[in-house]
């Protein structure tokens, strides 16, 4: 587990990378990392590609503020729920890419199933392109507490492994350390882009199940 300063440095670096990838337009997205005292999370309304130490808050695992003067991310409860649900989760990166936003909109099901891609094997737990990667999709909701409850309920019967999609909104990627969450994020975004391209060619009806 990281101390606060290390966790914040890693998230600042991740923010520059995610911004450069164009997965967090404007002030979209938020990042967090588990720490000895709870977790650190980005402040609300910031450009996450230009974060400094002042743009972070420290909270305990009940959501009680420990340090930081700025307003916490509007989506703090989702991060908190993921840490409460998944003991191994050390980092959460939330992005708003075009591919994640559009794919989650056009997929009518409550999950996005992907198969046949060699890059699936870059996700922890996958050994073959023939396996099916299933990413849950939750309807977007401005009531983040309610959305978090839906995610929690879902996790009880289908554990969240790499991340979840929020419809028309974006991706929450999770990992056991900063390197793993960055890998999960990059692989998922790559697969979403591939799938979107495939659907543009074959027709979106293929995904309306
Ligand atoms: C303009 S982005 C809308 C809010 C959002 O979805 C997001 O990821 C950023 O919210 P935050 O409060 O963490 O800045
Ligand atoms: Zn968001």
How would you summarize this macromolecular structure in one to three sentences?
The chain is of the alpha+beta class and 209 residues long. It has one domain (4-207): L-fuculose-1-phosphate Aldolase (3-Layer(aba) Sandwich).
Number of helices: 5
Q: Any guess at the CATH architecture?
A: 3-Layer(aba) Sandwich
Question: What's the CATH topology name?
Answer: L-fuculose-1-phosphate Aldolase
Major sheet strand order:
4-3-2-1-5-9-8-7-6
Estimate the mean pLDDT confidence.
96
Q: What do we call the CATH homologous superfamily?
A: Class II aldolase/adducin N-terminal domain
Extract low-pLDDT stretches: none
Total strands: 9
Helix content: 25-40%
Bound ligands, each once: the ligand CSCCC(=O)C(=O)COP(=O)(O)O, zinc ion
Taking Cα atoms only, what radius of gyration do you get, to the nearest Å? Answer: 16 Å
Task: Write down the secondary-structure element order.
Answer: HEEEEHEHEEHEEH
Biggest sheet features: 9 strands, mixed
Strand content: 15-25%
Keywords: Amino-acid biosynthesis, Lyase, Metal-binding, Methionine biosynthesis, Zinc
EC number: 4.2.1.109
Function: Catalyzes the dehydration of methylthioribulose-1-phosphate (MTRu-1-P) into 2,3-diketo-5-methylthiopentyl-1-phosphate (DK-MTP-1-P).
Protein name: Methylthioribulose-1-phosphate dehydratase
């Amino acid at each position: 587990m990281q101390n606060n300063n290390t966790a914040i440095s890693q998230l600042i670096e991740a923010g520059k990378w995610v911004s450069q990838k164009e997965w967090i337009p404007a002030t979209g997205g938020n990042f967090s990392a588990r720490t000895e005292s709870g977790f650190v999370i980005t402040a609300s309304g910031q450009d996450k590609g230009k974060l400094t130490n002042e743009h972070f808050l420290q909270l305990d695992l009940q959501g009680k503020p420990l340090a930081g003067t700025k307003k916490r991310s509007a989506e703090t409860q989702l991060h908190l729920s993921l840490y409460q649900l998944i003991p191994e989760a050390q980092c959460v990166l939330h992005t708003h890419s075009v591919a994640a936003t559009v794919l989650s909109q056009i997929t009518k099901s409550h999950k996005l199933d992907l198969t046949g891609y060699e890059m699936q094997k870059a996700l922890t737990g996958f050994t073959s392109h023939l396996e099916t990667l299933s990413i849950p999709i939750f309807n977007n909701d401005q009531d983040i507490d309610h959305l978090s409850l839906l995610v929690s309920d879902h996790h009880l019967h289908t554990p969240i492994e790499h991340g979840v999609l929020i419809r028309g909104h974006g991706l929450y990627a999770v990992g056991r350390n900063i390197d793993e969450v960055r890998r999960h994020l990059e692989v998922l975004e790559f697969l979403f882009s591939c799938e979107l391209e495939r659907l543009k060619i074959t027709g979106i009806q293929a995904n309306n199940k």
